[in-house]
Design a protein that fits this description.
By secondary structure, the protein is an alpha+beta fold. 45% of the residues lie in helices and 10% in strands. The chain has four helices and six strands, in the order ββββββαααα. The strands form two sheets. The protein has a four-stranded antiparallel β-sheet with strand order 3-4-5-6, with no helix packed on it. A two-stranded antiparallel ribbon has the order 1-2.
Amino acid sequence: MAVIERYSYDPYGKVSNTSDTISTGFLFNAKDGVMTDDTGLYYMRSRYYSPNLMRFINADVFVGDIRHSPTLNRYAYANANPTMYVDPDGEYVTVLAGGAIGGLIGGSANLIDQVMTDGWDNVSWGEVAVNTATGAASGAIAGTGIGLVGAISANSALNMANYTGTQYFNNESVEWDELVFNGFSGAFGGLIGG
């Protein structure tokens, strides 16, 4: 298979070099965006992006979070740092926000449950960490909008990982029936929330 076109881009997506041996008729076609016409704008599934302006031309639907200042600029691409972050669909911050919210809910709910059940002195901080991590992963996955099948699969796997990690930090063995139950309950949660 021969390479018929090659593009190079700067961090903000502006074409810096092209070489072609045959005209394909496409202005640009790639995994994350499609250059729609001679304006040079990329359509990134939820909004349009201008590599010349280094920003989106319409606002993100996510308003932003005062505690994370880069999210307040609703036109910024990849939180204004494309060498560090990616923004494949113009809704990257939903992944960050989903992860932060999911982690906060997962860790807090587990901590409250442990304190109410066993008292403050008997909190398993490893269990809190596992619930924070799996909550963050679940929230981040929800922020991607991966669809029903993806949500079911991801939540099933995360629920089983959460159970296994909790058992590990509590020095308890993994019971196969409980592992399967957690997989099914995670899948059901993905179905409901998916």
